Amino acid sequence: MRRRGLVLAAVAATALAACSSGAEPPADRAVGESPTDDAPSSAPLTPSPTSEPSPEPARTRYDGTITPLPGWLSGEMRGTTWKPGCPVPLEDLRLLRFNYHGFGGGIRRGPMVVHEDVADDVLWVFRQLFNAGFAIKRVGLTKEFVPSDFEPIITSKRSVTASFNCRPVITPLGPSDNFSQHSYGMAIDINPVQNPYVTSDGFVRNTEARRYLDRSKRLPGMIHANDVVVRSFTRIGWEWGGSWSGGKDYMHFSTSGT
Q: Which residue of 17, 148, 152, 194 has the fewest C-beta atoms within 10 A of its own C-beta?
């Protein structure tokens, strides 16, 4: 009996040592792998805690990142904001996420898709805007443009600062047959309601933007000649639609000036 007791004690001690050895089970996925990579199109663009650090420290200062398009986002763009025949392939595009000052004073974070060749310059510009306290209503991704849905007059408070969208040039009078610079990811519209496209005879398509026709006003989100927005884009070689002769596109900046 004494010998049997010693054997049982040894077995128990061995099992206890295995449980307390500190060994860990294999992880379900690689460290840093984002669970949103294969998320459905309704998935938010909020970084996962497993893919980026907690956003709280970044919300007190400027912070921006550049990544290839996640698989779920490429899938969402196919057939909507990107279609076969677009002038750039999806693999040439990059997803930016950066902090900005929202209307009302809070610091927000939003996504933007641009061409890989301009990604670093664009983040630099939005750093300058952040440091200057320039207010942006919302930074986000574009929606599909359907030419047959164009309406000559709209009433919309949607004022999204965005870049890539494979679509034609659009003026208040309608779409053209030429690709916009947005189709290359080399143009950005900033606060469209506060900075509308105004034709040479003063027409503005969005009735919500008509209060901003007087460009001498200094309302939040408005862009003016030689302000921090124009100066910053000029530094990276982009041109402003607000300096065009004839109609003026106050929201629009692009590498080509068109």
A: 148
What is the per-residue pLDDT across 202-240, written as a single tens digit (0 to 9) for each? 999 999 999 999 999 999 999 999 999 999 999 999 999
Q: Could you give the CA distance from residue 132 to residue 120 in angstroms, rounded to a whole number?
A: 19
The domain containing residue 205 runs over which residues? Answer: 52-254
The answer to whether the CB of 68 falls within 8 A of the CB of 116 is no
Q: What is the model's pTM?
A: 0.78
- Cα 111 to Cα 28: distance, rounded to the nearest angstrom: 28
Question: Does position 22 have pLDDT exceeding 60, yes or no?
Answer: no
Q: Nearest 5°: phi and psi at 227? A: -85, -175
Give φ, ψ of 179 to 5 degrees: -65, 135
Is residue 26 assigned to a domain? no
Residues 17-42 have a mean pLDDT of 33
Q: How many domains does the chain have?
A: 1
Tell me the C-alpha distance between 62 and 39, whole Å: 27
The answer to whether position 46 is within a domain reads no
In a domain, 145, yes or no: yes
